[in-house]
């Protein structure tokens, strides 16, 4: 396919090629396929649809009550992903140009650069700001994310997507990348097979995958006491990408737009937009999601794709330059926003004491700035590099991050700055007798390895003050030798 001119900020144009998935772009041009297959041309409204998907996700994570169903934006991404990647796959298979090496090389070039940058930042920041348990949890998700298995790792925790403990994981959002990449392990092979079928047989095969996956989605609702299997398990989500794949198949067979009647296509576009927006407004955490409710964003996104790109909804809403620009940075924005929000709240959990620079709205501003810098300074730069070592280097960096994450899991004490001992002292140590039931001075244990202590909280300090505010505890001097002793409310150093 010929390169398309894509509008960018400032009113200028640059040459670009079609994008290959919901969150990510592809830069490999594909030549015009032979008739009767039609080429997938660049559609700015698809970038606008990305904007419609990512903005509610960010708003929901920053201010959950502002967009109660904002988390379903990921479902919209799944449909976009299936549409764009499947379109490229079907064309390459038909042209007999498809290879797994080429397919995954493009995926690595597009996905890894921004992901490596965000994972590195998250890991380093976690070592400075997290204690042992939280650091281990983050490292576990990072290690799973390196092999695109974060959704399985979170699933095994038996915590729902909305659990407070899970929301403290700055890499929780990697679950969606895991679902996508697991889908694209088998989907290229499936496309290579069905592309050789007659039209109706190929259509039927795709419908079997779609309906079967949706059935898993419904069957897993409430399994094991929650909806985790329906939410995180890949087989329960594949149908959403299969919807996009089916639309790509039909688009290549019949051309764009699939619906050529202006009135019908406009009605379909309005209905699709309404389904997505209503989903954002009415779907909440308490509902059995995905389940039947996931049809709102999935069918809505599908209708917006199939009815485009010439209706007023596409030309005057989705194809607006600001929407297109946000869509272009949507992958980086999705990666950056969640760690920044989580770390800001972790450092200042009390909103009344939180400085304005770490408020959620500022984290959103920083996320956009980081996303723009990532797109132009990292992603575009790597995509332009055609050196054969680019892919091996990217894979090596990802594996190195995974190795560091495993090391953090094995010995978090040496990586957490906050978990380091507060002081190393020699000489007598005063221990309050009141803390011991036998009324005698405590024996200092022989600690071959310094222990880890949580930072004292205001509640603990006030409680300690109440315990000792009367006459004060009686202290006995003991010879501690040379030991590590933490500074806390119930231990005083002489």
Please report the total strand number as a whole number: 5
- Compute the CA-based radius of gyration: 27 Å
What's the helix count?
18
Overall average pLDDT:
82
Major beta-sheet overview: 3 strands, antiparallel
Question: Uncertain regions: pLDDT < 50 for 5+ in a row?
Answer: 1-19, 25-37, 422-437, 446-453, 473-494
Strand content: 5-15%
H/E series: EEHHHHHHHHHHHHHHHHHEHEE
Spatial strand order of the main sheet? 4-3-5
Protein name: Acyltransferase 3
Domain Acyltransferase: 45-374
Transmembrane segments: 70-90, 111-131, 137-157, 203-223, 229-250, 262-283, 289-306, 318-340, 360-378, 390-408
GO molecular function: acyltransferase activity, transferring groups other than amino-acyl groups
In short:
This is Acyltransferase 3. The chain is mainly alpha-helical and 494 residues long.
Write a structural description.
The chain is mainly alpha-helical. It is built from 18 helices and 5 strands. A 3-stranded antiparallel β-sheet has the order 4-3-5, with no helix packed on it. Helix 2 crosses helix 12. The longest helix is centred in the N-terminal third of the chain and has 30 residues, at 100-129. The termini are far apart.
Keywords:
Acyl_transf_3_dom, disordered C terminus, mainly alpha, three-stranded antiparallel sheet, two-stranded antiparallel sheet, about 55% helix, about 500 residues, transmembrane helix, disordered N terminus, membrane, transferase, 18 helices, 5 strands, 2 domains
């Amino acid at each position: 396919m010929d390169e398309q001119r894509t509008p960018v900020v400032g009113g200028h144009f640059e040459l670009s090629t079609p994008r290959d998935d919901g969150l990510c772009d592809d830069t490999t041009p594909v030549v015009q396929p032979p008739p009767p297959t039609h080429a997938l041309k660049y559609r700015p409204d698809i970038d606008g649809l990305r904007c419609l998907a990512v903005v509610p996700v960010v708003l929901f994570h920053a201010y959950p009550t502002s967009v109660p169903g904002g988390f379903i934006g990921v479902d919209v991404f799944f449909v976009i992903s299936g549409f764009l990647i499947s379109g490229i796959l079907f064309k390459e298979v038909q042209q007999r140009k498809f290879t797994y090496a080429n397919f995954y090389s493009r995926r690595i070039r597009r996905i890894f650069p921004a992901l490596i940058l965000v994972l590195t930042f998250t890991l380093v920041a976690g070592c400075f700001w997290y204690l042992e348990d939280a650091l281990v949890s983050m490292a576990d998700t990072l290690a799973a994310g390196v092999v695109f298995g974060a959704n399985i790792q979170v699933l095994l925790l038996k915590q729902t997507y909305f659990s407070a403990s899970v929301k403290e994981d700055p890499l929780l959002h990697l679950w969606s990348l895991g679902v996508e990449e697991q889908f694209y392990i088998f989907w290229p092979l499936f496309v290579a097979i069905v592309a050789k079928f007659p039209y109706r047989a190929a259509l039927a095969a795709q419908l079997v995958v779609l309906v079967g996956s949706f059935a898993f989605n419904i069957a897993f609702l409430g399994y094991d006491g929650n909806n985790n299997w329906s939410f995180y398990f890949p087989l329960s989500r594949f149908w959403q990408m299969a919807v996009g794949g089916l639309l790509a198949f039909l688009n290549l067979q019949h051309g764009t737009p699939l619906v050529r009647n202006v009135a019908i296509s406009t009605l379909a576009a309005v209905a699709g937009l309404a389904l997505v927006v209503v989903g954002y407004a009415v779907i909440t955490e308490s509902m059995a999601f995905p389940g039947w409710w996931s049809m709102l964003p999935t069918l809505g996104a599908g209708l917006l794709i199939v009815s485009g790109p010439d209706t007023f909804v596409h030309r005057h809403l989705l194809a607006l330059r600001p929407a297109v620009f946000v869509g272009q940075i949507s992958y980086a924005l999705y990666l950056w926003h969640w760690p920044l929000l989580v770390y800001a709240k972790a450092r200042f959990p009390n909103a009344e004491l939180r400085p304005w620079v770490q408020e959620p709205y500022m984290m959103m501003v920083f996320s956009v700035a980081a996303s723009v810098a990532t797109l132009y300074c990292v992603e575009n730069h790597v995509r332009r590099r055609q050196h054969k070592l680019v892919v091996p280097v990217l894979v090596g960096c990802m594996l190195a991050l995974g190795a560091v994450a495993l090391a953090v899991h094995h010995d978090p004490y040496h990586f957490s700055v906050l978990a380091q001992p507060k002081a190393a002292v020699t000489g007598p140590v005063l221990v309050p007798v009141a803390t011991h039931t036998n009324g005698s001075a405590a024996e200092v244990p022989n600690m071959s390895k310094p222990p880890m202590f949580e930072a004292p909280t205001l509640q603990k300090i006030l409680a300690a003050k109440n315990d000792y505010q009367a006459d004060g505890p009686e202290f006995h001097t003991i010879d501690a030798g040379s030991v590590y002793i933490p500074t806390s409310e119930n231990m005083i150093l002489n």
